[in-house]
Write a structure and sequence with these properties.
Elements lengths: L1 H13 L26 E3 L2 E3 L1 H5 L2 H6 L3 E3 L2 E3 L3 H5 L2 H6 L3 E3 L2 E3 L3 H5 L2 H6 L3 E3 L2 E3 L4 H5 L1 H6 L3 E2 L5 E2 L3 H5 L2 H6 L3 E6 L2 E8 L3 H5 L2 H6 L1 E5 L2 E4 L2 H5 L2 H6 L3 E3 L2 E3 L9 H6 L3 E3 L2 E3 L3 H5 L2 H6 L3 E3 L2 E3 L3 H5 L2 H6 L3 E3 L2 E3 L3 H5 L2 H6 L3 E3 L2 E3 L3 H5 L2 H6 L3 E4 H6 L16 E4 L3 H5 L2 H6 L3 E3 L2 E3 L1 H15 L3
Antiparallel strand pairs: 1-2, 3-4, 5-6, 7-8, 9-10, 11-12, 13-14, 15-16, 17-18, 19-20, 21-22, 23-24, 25-26, 27-28
Length: 446
């Protein structure tokens, strides 16, 4: 076999072909993908890692996103289009290995055009010049400075410049005027006509519907009453040249009924007195009944003791600005203490803590549930948990009927004959016997 291999080896050498093939490393010359080792690609005649360049910070900053041997270079327009050079300076096209501006529209979307007026393409760069509105950018869109003057600055040349600007739509400043405080030669857009003010967003929002000294201001109670701020913030009355809450303006708002913000002070609705707070829903629900720093706060135990949280859960004392369970007296004020024996404070809640809690409850007097029992233990033996509405996953202790003596002392025994304790409840003698027989039958072997 070896004698036949020798001529093949000799023939390969004779025609100049290598007996074994070695793939190229990064930067080596290549003609196709198979000429390169591992993940390297054959790009423009060199083995390279294209993604390595695109993941580099220089790709985002300078557009050098294409691998060329051992280097990252600018190779195509997309390298420049997503770079900072395009966004900031308008250099959005690949030209001779660099990013450049090749047309005015490359410049128009750049920060340089908006901020400095460099909106015209020249010699691969964006230079000052080009269409006025494109040059002036935000100054034109926001303030009406849309005309380029002899010095190259953006200025207001006519009412037409103002008419499409934000200050006209929002503030009613739709007319060109000259002279500002401290600078009599300055030109700007100002409010000169009531009609412009009445068509502005601030008329509908704030009631600023009258032109006065170059600005739109509030002109009447009627304009204030028709504004959005009247409906949302009570700013319904003319005070000077502004709309502010006065008198009963605040009392018509939901914030008054809900949060006690019923008095107009300093241009806004606030809680002016404890009386404002005491009439609010927040006082009844959360105990926020005391006026404090313009709002209603939980400041005293008395604030909590009139709330539903006190009656239902024993949250009758103030702690850290909220109503909470802090002592036994809190639990004893609550309805569950009297009805189901939850009279002991524990971890911020009222729970059944002792035999005495159950003995003093209506559950004992009415239904014979006079002893604390474990919810978990009752479920383990299949007993019915002795409390209606307890969550399926609940644990802890409740009051239950554990002895016949407890049942015999209850109204359930006197009125309905339920004098026997069975699985946490008081039942009649007949029910007790039937359940015992059923239990005995279940225990018989098959």
């Amino acid at each position: 076999m070896a004698s036949h291999a020798a001529p093949l080896w000799t023939a390969l050498l004779a025609i100049g072909l290598p007996a074994c093939f070695s793939r190229g490393e990064q930067g080596d010359v290549c003609e196709k993908r198979l000429d390169c080792r591992g993940e390297l690609q054959c790009y423009r005649g060199r083995c390279s890692l294209p993604d390595l360049c695109r993941r580099s910070p220089s790709c985002a900053k300078r557009g050098v996103c294409t691998a060329w041997g051992h280097d990252c270079v600018v190779a195509e327009d997309r390298d420049c289009l997503y770079s900072d050079l395009c966004a900031e300076r308008g250099l959005c096209r690949a030209v001779d290995g660099a990013c450049a501006a090749t047309a005015d529209h490359d410049c128009h979307g750049s920060l340089a055009c908006r901020d400095t007026g460099a909106c015209r393409s020249q010699d691969g760069r964006c230079v000052v010049g080009g269409h006025g509105r494109a040059r002036c950018g935000e100054a034109c869109d926001a303030f009406g400075r849309c005309t380029v003057d002899a010095s190259g600055a953006c200025t207001v040349a006519s009412d037409a410049d103002c008419a499409t600007a934000l200050v006209c739509r929002r503030d009613g400043r739709c007319a060109r005027s000259q002279g500002l405080p401290g600078d009599p030669t300055a030109v700007a857009c100002s409010a000169q006509r009531d009609a412009d003010c009445q068509a502005s967003e601030h008329c509908a929002l704030l009631g600023f519907c009258r032109a006065l000294r170059g600005q739109c201001v509030a002109g009447s109670d009627a304009w204030c009453a028709a504004s959005e701020r009247c409906r949302s913030a009570g700013q319904c009355s003319l005070v000077g040249d502004r709309c502010e809450p006065v008198g009963a303006d605040c009392r018509r708002l939901p914030q008054c009924q809900n949060s006690g913000l019923c008095t107009g002070i300093g241009g806004r609705c606030v809680a002016g007195s404890t009386a404002d707070c005491e009439q609010s829903r927040g006082c009844a629900s959360t105990g926020a009944c005391t006026a404090q720093d313009g709002g209603c706060a939980v400041a005293f135990d008395e604030d909590c003791q009139a709330t539903a949280g006190c009656a239902l859960a024993g949250q009758c004392s103030v702690r850290d600005g909220h109503c909470a369970v802090t002592r036994r007296e809190d639990c004893e004020r609550s309805n569950p203490c009297h009805t189901v024996g939850r009279c002991t404070p524990r971890d911020g809640r009222c729970v059944v803590g002792s035999h005495a809690d159950c003995r003093a409850s209506l559950a004992c007097a009415l239904h014979g549930k006079c002893r604390p029992v474990s919810v978990w233990a009752e479920r383990m033996v299949g007993w019915q948990v002795p409390e209606v509405g307890l969550a399926d996953g609940a644990t802890g202790t409740v009051c239950g009927a554990r002895t016949h003596a407890d049942c015999r002392q209850s109204e359930a025994c006197a009125a309905e004959g339920r004098c026997r304790a069975w699985q946490g409840q008081c039942v009649t003698r007949e029910m007790y016997r039937a359940r015992r027989l059923q239990l005995d039958a279940d225990d018989l072997p098959l």
